[in-house]
# Entry
Amino acid sequence: MQTDAVKQLTSALWPFAIILIGFVILQASAFLKSALSFNKKYNVLTQAEINGAFRTGAISAVGPAFTVVVITLTLIQMVGAAAAFMRVGVIGSASYELNLATQAADAVGVTLGSPEMTIEILVLCLFGMILGSAPYFLNCLITLKPMDAAMTKPKEAGKVSFTPVLGFAASMGLIGRSVTNQAVNGLPQICAIVSSCVLTLLIKNYIKKSGKKWLNDWILAICLIVGMIVGSTVKNIMA
# Structure
């Protein structure tokens, strides 16, 4: 059950939440248009690669989206629908936002979601979530302009851009960090990781032999599902 403070704050926040999410949608549309125009000018990706990226992104977002929805339902109970809508709609990490709100409430000696929560404490939690996400935006302000210049100058000089290498390195770093964090949790996680890696290699080998390149768009989704099934099975066997 939501507290009275949560209900009152939610009513006041809805107009601001709608404005903020509307701005996010407009901003995303502007970024998409700018990215497509940039690619058309400098030919970073082919049209086939762009279409493949859209399909892969849409497919691979389904699995993580379920996790976000489940955690967001908890966040809604704690801070209200409007605040959850604002935070998850901007940052997208419900677990991170829930952790920030919990820490803000703990700082004043109150448990998040308890009857002791007042509007003032909820506002504190909201500011805690906002300030905790500030480094993301500061990073964009500092790094995006130099990155843009680093991408355009090689193209204008007729040289090969380092962007594909940087994108690959960033992806490997992100995946490697996630794999490392999960691998230390036990045998079920290790089995899930190994099975996903082996299946990825098998599918890539099959694509190379059969020429069915459309399967590339489904590799991540297939391996995610198989990895979860293997991990859950091993965990149940060990229980």
Observations:
- Residues 1-161 form one domain.
- The first helix runs from residue 4 to 42.
- The mean pLDDT is 84.
